Amino acid sequence: MSRLLLRTPLLRASRRAVRPTSARFFSTPANIEGYGRNVFKGTIADEYLTAQGLPSGTLNSAEWTQDPAAADKVADAVLRWATDNGATFFCHWFQPFASSGVRHGLSGQVQNAFFKFDGEGKPVWDLKGKDLIQGETDGSSYPNGGLRATHTAGGYLKVDPTSHIWLRGDTIFIPACFVSYYGHALDEKTPLLRSVDALNREGTRLLSLMGWDVPGLQSNIGLEQEIFLIPREEFIRRPDLQLTGRTVIGKDAPRGQEMCDHYMAPPSTTSPALDCMAEIQRQCFEVGIPLRTRHREVAPNQYEFAPLFGSVTTQIDQNVIVMQIIEEVAPQYGLAALLQEKPFNNVNGSGKHNNWSVATTDGCNLLNVGQVTEVSGIPHMFATVMSAIVSGVDLHGDLMRMAIASPGNDFRLGACEAPPAIVSTYLGEDMTAYLDDFRNGNVHPYQPSLKELDLGVSCIAPLTVPAEDRNRTSPFPYGGHRFEFRAVGSSQNVSMVNTVLNAITADGFKRFADKIEGGASPQEVAAEALNEHWKVIFNGDNYDEANQAMLTERGVWRIDSGIDAICSLSSSKNIELFSDMKVLSEPECKARQTCLVDHYVGTVEMEALCLVDMLNQHVIPAVKAAEGKRLPDLQGAVGTIKSALSAVHAEEDEQKRGNLARTLRLETMVDIRAVVDEAEGETPANLWTLPTYKDLLFLDHNYLAYE
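The structure corresponding to this sequence follows.
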C-alpha cells in the first residue's frame, strides 16, 4: 500500500496520508551523536588507519596517493570500515558536466563488489590501493563536446584526496576526477581543483610579496539550496513536471505569494513536508553534511536547506549529495521534489546562493577585515585583497554571467527574485567610502560602523546591528566576511561558478604580484586597480530599470541571453585567462561551451515536445469538449512549435541554434502558454484532465489528514 493514499475521483479536493512508520520528528541529540558516522574521516578513519600501521591524520594530505604501499594500507583500512558497516560495493564517484536538471544525482558511477576468489574458489573481501586510487570507464557517452568519440572512448578516474570517502546503503563512494586519455577534463571537479591550485599559487605569491608568508590559500563556500515539494500523485500526472521539472502551462491559482504568508512560516504538521525535511536532514547528517537550517521560502510549497561553511570542493560534493537525497527521500513521503529554477509561473523560482570567501589553510579569512589585519599585521592587506576581487568582477563579469547561464535561470534573472544579468558588486556605503579613501591615498583602518535600534519596549535592551543593510538585488554583494553570488540556479552543480570565482581572483592576485615584482608598491597597485574598475561597484537598486540602463551605459558587463553568455567561454580573453591560470585549455573551453549549448537546446526541445503532447492529449480534447473559443489557436500552436523545432535542428551554427531555441522558449512558448492558461480558466473542472496550480501548490490545504 502506498504511504500516501491516492485520491479517488470522489475525493479530488482532499487527501489522506499516513506518516511512514519510520518517520519521527527530527531529533537533534540523536543526530549530533551520529553525525558523520558514514564518512571515512577524522577519528573514524584514524581508528582503522592506525590498525594498519599508518599514523593518525594520514588522509589530511595527498601524500598517501603517491605511495603504493601507503595506498594499499589505506585501502585495507577502507575495506575493513566498509564491511564493518555492511557495505559490499565501491565506486569512483564523479561529476560529468552538463548534468544540471537532467541527470539524477548529477554524478556518474559504476558500482563494483570488492571481492575476489581465493585459490579454492571461495570469494574473499579484496580492495587494493590501485583500485582505490584509479579507475577506468567508457568516456564516449558522457557530454564531452568532441573531446571523446566512440572510437576514442577511454575515460580515466583518479581519486580526489581533498574530499572524503563516504558510505550510503551497501556502497562506498570515492570522490574522483574524470579525464580523457589525453588528460582533458570531462567533469566538473577537475577544473575546480585546478582553480583552487591557481588561487593558492598566485595568492600565496602576492601575500609573500607583501610580507606575509602563509601555508596556503583555499576558497570556502556555503550553499543555500531551495526546492519545491509537491504531491507526487499530481506530479506523475503532469508530463512537463515529470520530464523537465517545470510547468510549461498552468493558470495561476487564485492565491499565490502576494500575501507573503509562506516565507518563514511554521512548517505545518498537516502535510508530509516537515517529516520529509527531517528525514533528509537525518540522512545528510549521517554522511557528514551539516544541514543546519531549514525553513519555508517565499512561494507556496517552497523550502530551503542551508549547511555550515566548508572548503569549496567538499561543499560542492556535499551539495550534489544533498540534491540526490532530497529527490530520493521525497517519494517516501508521497511527495516529489523539484530542484529546477522555475517550476511555476508567477511565483518565485529557486536559487542556490553561493557564499564565497578566501582563507588561509590555517584559518584566517582574507575577507574578514579585523581578522586579516590582526593576523597579517599589514593595515592595507584587506584593501589590497578587495581591490583584486573588484577588478576581477569588472574584467570577467562575462564569465560570471556564463557560470549561471543554466536553462532555468532564463526565467529568474531580473525578475525581482534574482538579480538581473548585469554583473556589478555591492560593497555597502561604509566599505565603498573606505576603499574610496584608500584609492585616494588616505590609508586607515576599516571600522565597520554599527547602529543601535531601540525597540521602545522597557524590558528589551536595544539591538546593535550593522550600519549596512542587505542588498538582495545585487548579483555579487559583500556581506561581511564573504561575497554572496546570488544569481546561481538551484539545479546547478556550482563547480563552474566557483571555478570562475577562483580563477578571476587568482588572475587578480597575479596581476598585482607581477606589478609589485616590477617595483610598484601594493598600495599603488591596488589604488590603480580601484580607479580603473570603480564602475563595477554599485550600491543601489539593481531591479530599477533606470539603474540598469545607467550600469549598461557605464560599461558594466550585461549579457541578457544565456546562450550568448555561454558562448563567451570561447572568447580569446577568456581562453587566455583559463590557460594562463592552468584551469582550462582552449580545447576544453570550446568543448565545454558546446556541451552547455547542447544542454540548453536539449532542455528546450524536451519542454517543447512536452507542450505538444499536452496540447494534443489533454488541452485540445478538453477545450473541444467545452466548445472553447480558443480551440483554433490551440490547434495551430502545435504546428508552430514543430516548425520552430525544425528550424532549431536545421541550424548548424552553435550560437545561432542556441538563440533560436531561446526564442522558441521565451517568446513562442510563452505566447502559447498564455492562450492555454486562458483556455484552462474557461474550461469546466470536470473536463480539465491536468492537475492545476491549486492542486500542486498548497500542501497545507490539500490534505484531509496526515497522521
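The first strand starts at residue 4 and ends at 5.
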